[in-house]
Specification:
alpha/beta; binds manganese (II) ion; 2 domains; inorganic pyrophosphatase (n-terminal core)
């Protein structure tokens, strides 16, 4: 953040504000970790704070402090609208285009209150007066740590805030293994552990909390549904609504499934297609230079980062799969690059 912006924001935050924090559709560990980490910090600073999500998020994030106070716009549209309307300051975390959060985004832009964007996704749209945006940051949680430090409040990071931020960094870096994990990431994590973050607890709460059904769905997906196309260094999985309901699918059950495709030797491009509520949800991952953000933007109404992106399609599951495999020859050259 520019120092003039920083000063202005500090001044603004010196007086109690009615703050609303919003994050992206289908919030993940980074979205909720950054939102609730910031929420707990701003509460300490004596502001009135509300976190609003466009829809709900998986159970394995419910341990975060403040979870019970979160308002789900889809479930409580009137309450969410009233909160946004009276906000005097709005934080937008882990996304950078209000169109991505549909109706909630319209409510946010209808309020003239200053907006603060904190995000690490490429190609931000220009709607915020204050912006802490860095595509080289591993996660938005890393930037929330920077933000609190820039406000001169590192001392306010307690165990609850530290655990929220740790969770977002851990999930967005694939447990510290993606190339986005920098020396700075590890320095921040060290500070979080010093501030009380319990790394083993966070890991278990997020990764070792599966139902038997979820693990069996994973087993079924890998043994029955995995398709490998060595000529394109590509592997993918498709799951129909029926296949998912066989394993009593619950939100979050297929999270991370796409990464297994990328664990195969020689595979550089991984995709996952799931039928959900009448559309097909897609996830893309890559190793190296292949840009899945560009791929998702061009072909599946989505986007994200170079090595991790998502999108959706109104085609049937079979048609979406056909479209995907049909596109691969066009990308053959790019897929060959290291
Ligand atoms: Mn993120």
């Amino acid at each position: 953040m520019h120092s003039s912006q920083k000063l202005k924001l500090r001044k603004l935050l010196a007086k109690p504000q009615q703050i609303v924090i919003v994050t992206h559709w289908s919030p993940d560990g980074d979205a909720m970790g950054s939102s609730l980490g910031l929420y707990n910090y701003l509460l300490k600073k004596k502001h009135s704070v509300n976190v609003i999500t466009p829809n709900d998020y998986p159970d394995f994030l419910h341990w975060m402090k403040g979870h019970k106070q979160v308002t789900d716009h889809l479930r409580k549209p009137a309450k969410a609208a009233a909160l946004v309307r009276k906000a005097t300051l709005i934080f937008c975390l882990d996304f950078n285009n209000l169109e991505r959060i549909a109706e909630l985004g319209m409510l946010v832009s209808a309020n003239a209150a200053p907006k603060v964007l904190i995000d690490h996704h490429p190609q931000p749209s220009d709607f915020a007066q204050f912006s802490l945006h860095k595509t080289t940051a591993s996660s938005t949680c890393e930037l929330i740590f920077d933000f609190i430090e820039q406000m001169g409040d590192k001392k306010h990071i307690d165990k609850d805030i530290a655990n929220c931020l740790y969770a977002g960094i851990m999930t967005d870096t694939g447990s510290f293994r993606f190339p986005s994990t920098s020396a700075k990431t590890h320095r921040i994590v060290a500070s979080l552990i010093e501030a009380g973050a319990t790394n083993a607890f966070v890991h278990q709460a997020i990764y070792d909390d599966s139902t038997e059904d979820r693990l069996r769905l994973l087993g079924f997906s890998l043994s029955e549904k995995l398709r490998v196309l060595p000529e394109f260094q590509t592997a993918y999985i498709t799951l129909s609504e029926q296949e998912q309901s066989r394993f009593n699918y619950r939100k979050g059950d297929t999270e991370g499934l796409v990464n297994y495709c990328l664990a195969i030797r020689g595979i550089r491009f991984a995709a996952f297609f799931a039928e959900r509520d009448g559309t097909v949800k897609t996830s893309f991952r890559s190793k190296g230079s292949f840009d899945v953000n560009a791929f998702a933007r061009a072909n599946f109404r989505g986007g994200g980062h170079r090595n991790a992106a998502g999108g959706s399609s109104d085609l049937s599951l079979e048609e979406a799969e056909k479209k995907f495999t049909g596109l691969l020859p066009r990308y053959k050259k790019e897929l060959k690059k290291p």
